[in-house]
Design goal:
Number of helices: 22
Largest sheet: 6 strands, antiparallel
Radius of gyration: 28 Å
Strand content: 25-35%
């Protein structure tokens, strides 16, 4: 049975048409239209725009061109068909001539070292006034984070206001384009949607920037703050975490173009499946002109943790500390019980229902040392630090952190290792009770590793990180089947690409398909990826970080314009999620094939319970064999506790035993 289209009332369509006719006259109004559109759920947005397109007038022509310029392929079919109908009815569908403007001035603040940059660009109009275009750029997954325009400002007022901004420096047009294009490349690479207003700032993206290496390096020096040695290394760790390699030029001496050698020193941290967890400066020896800094980096590969030492040589060049050399030291497996890296350290968690979201944000905005730590699939991540934000940029769990907040429209979750501090925050947020913006729902204890998995998006259900109800990680021995969801902008291009990169597909009800990629590896294990395609979304799934990275790279290659990243999560049902009764009847061999894939992957996957060995490796020794049988007992007990999970439905204890016995033979 096909899904019905949502009902769109005539009044809703009429109100949208009124908004379009009222706001389409200028750029400020056009951005307001786009903001209204973004607030409408996608399943309603499609039939709404189809209904709106039935209105034949010049303003609708302008609106269709706006959709094309802002969203590109996403609404290409609707725009094309609508403009063809307008032309047949005698309406002129050509774009109106653009207003003539001349570049006037551009200013940027000196915060490139923080991974963010504010940028103001003024355009001189024919009437002698200026239009101001303001950017907040993030050199991480958020890219072009915010864009605001202020139109028709008297030039005298503009000059007066700019004289008060002592923390901003003048830059040229190509330099402004350089930063905007660089930030946008993070949107493209991470498949995140940039700020609304692309129909205006596309001119910067189209500009062919001609900065050479020396000019690029000098510009980054100009807009980066002067950092002390410890802070410089912390900022370096932050840049590596976000793959912000351009930033490295700002901590190297001019004409010292060895970014490639720096990246080579850290190539182990930048490999697929490596989770860069923490970077700490341990020792520093310095004088007025030189410093030697010893630091440690903690990272995880699958279920194993490692600690790597680095020694940095820093010198003062023209009164500014610069990095001149890096030497990688010892790397060893990390004992999780070893202090101060005890990831089982208790964390206090409180969950609140949000009563007044606007009041809550107003309060948090007025609170010192709270900053945005990033977006996760199910909310915004804020962090309250006990240190100045510029110093607290190293990659850590809770070092120097008072509390972490995850906020969406309905719930706020607060984490803190300091129970007393958490209650103080609670009193401040709840106030006198009558005007409270939140209401406590529940509280419980967890540990750092579980909270970390929640903040990474691997666990979406807050109850799963409650140590009283069970560990946030999947049961020992069960493979993590991770899923990444994408919104599709061009369904035809995505389906053609999937047909090229996968081995087989099967048709499912409701115009859905599932594609499989299976690759037999030399070590006897398999690379397996699943691509689930619907008319609006596609989900990529694989076992663990390494395979997920590979599956995404295969899928995302040259597909950046056709997709937008939505969320990351652990798929509780795993590869067996699609096995409905109807699918089983249509494809009777599929269940056995998926079981074989899962068991072979399990047999060759490293397990924390087996001291980092795979069952294949552990079965070679008597001690390892005993560990396997203990693992199998755990699997049996866990399947009793979570009988509803897909694994326990399809993989029984004897399946694991048969796999081990078959491999022995």
């Amino acid at each position: 049975m096909k899904n019905r289209k949502p009902y769109i009332s005539k009044e809703f369509v009429k109100n949208m048409l009124c908004d379009i006719n009222r706001l389409i006259k200028n750029n400020t109004g056009k951005i307001a239209i786009l903001e209204i559109l973004e607030e409408i759920p996608y399943n309603i947005r499609v039939p709404l725009l189809e209904s709106v397109a039935l209105s034949y007038d010049r303003n609708m022509v302008e609106f269709m061109h706006l959709l094309r310029l802002e969203y590109g392929k996403e609404w290409n079919d609707l725009v094309k068909h609508s403009l063809e109908k307008y032309a047949m009815s005698g309406i002129n569908i050509d774009n109106e001539p653009k207003r003539t403007e001349t570049f006037y001035r551009a200013f940027a603040n000196c915060t490139r070292d923080t991974g963010k940059l504010s940028l103001d660009i003024a355009w001189l109009r024919e009437n002698g006034r200026v239009d101001l275009e303001c950017f907040l750029l993030s050199f991480s997954d958020r890219g072009i984070q915010n864009f605001v325009i202020i139109e028709n400002i008297p030039i005298s007022k503009y000059k007066k206001e700019r004289n008060y901004l002592k923390d901003m420096v003048t830059i040229g047009f190509d330099e402004a384009c350089y930063f905007i294009k660089q930030a946008y490349s993070f949107n493209v690479f991470n498949m995140t949607r940039p700020a609304l207003g692309k129909f205006i700032y596309q001119k910067y993206l189209d500009r062919n920037v001609t900065l050479n290496k020396d000019q690029e390096c000098a510009l980054l020096h100009k807009l980066s703050g002067s950092l002390e040695p410890v802070s410089l290394i912390n900022h370096l760790f932050y840049a590596l975490k976000n793959f912000d390699f351009h930033y490295l030029l700002s901590i190297l001496p001019l004409n010292y173009n060895n970014c490639a050698s720096i990246k080579k020193c850290f190539e182990g941290l930048l490999q697929p499946g490596v989770d860069f967890l923490e970077g700490n400066v341990k020792k520093i020896h310095d004088n007025k002109h030189a410093a030697s800094v010893l630091a440690e980096v903690i990272f995880a590969i699958e279920n194993q943790f490692f600690i790597q030492e680095y020694e940095f040589q820093i010198k003062k060049v023209l009164n500014k500390w610069m990095l001149t050399d890096i030497a990688a030291g010892n790397c060893k497996v990390l004992d999780l019980q070893e202090t101060p890296y005890n990831f089982d350290m208790e964390v206090n968690c409180r969950v609140y229902d949000i009563i007044d979201l606007e009041y809550l944000f107003d309060y948090l905005d007025d609170t010192e040392n709270i900053y945005e730590a990033g977006e996760i699939p199910f909310g915004m991540h804020l962090r309250m630090s006990s240190k100045d934000m510029r110093e607290n940029v190293k990659v850590t769990f809770f070092d120097g952190v008072i509390a972490d907040f995850v906020i969406n429209s309905e719930v706020m979750i607060m984490f803190s290792p300091d129970e007393e501090g958490l209650y103080e925050l609670d009193d401040l947020l709840l106030g006198d009770g009558e005007n409270a913006s939140i209401m406590l729902r529940k509280e419980f204890k967890s540990n750092i590793w579980n909270v970390h998995n929640f903040l990474r998006g691997y666990v979406s259900d807050i109850d799963r990180i409650n140590t009283e109800q069970g560990n946030g990680a999947n049961p020992e021995g069960v493979l993590l089947f991770m899923s990444v969801h994408y919104f599709i902008k061009d369904i035809q291009a995505v389906e053609e690409h999937l047909n090229k990169i996968t081995d087989r597909y099967i048709d499912l009800p409701d115009n859905c398909k599932v594609f499989y990629k299976l690759e037999r590896l030399k070590d006897g294990s398999d690379f397996f990826a699943e691509y689930f395609l619907t008319p609006e979304y596609v989900t990529v799934s694989a076992f663990g970080d390494k395979d997920m990275y590979k599956a995404r790279k295969i899928f995302e290659y040259q597909m950046y314009d056709n997709l937008e990243l939505e969320s990351v999560e652990v798929n509780a049902e795993g590869i067996f999620d699609i096995l409905s009764e109807k699918v089983k009847k249509l494809y009777p061999q599929l269940e056995k094939e998926l079981k074989d894939v899962y068991l072979n992957k399990w047999y060759h996957s490293r397990q924390a319970f087996l001291s980092g060995m795979s069952p294949s490796e552990a079965s070679q020794t008597e001690e390892g064999h005993r560990m396997i049988w203990t693992l199998l007992k755990n699997l049996k007990n866990n399947s009793k506790k979570s009988i509803k999970t897909g694994y326990s439905k399809y993989i029984r204890l004897y399946d694991y035993i048969n796999k081990i016995e078959q491999k022995k033979q």
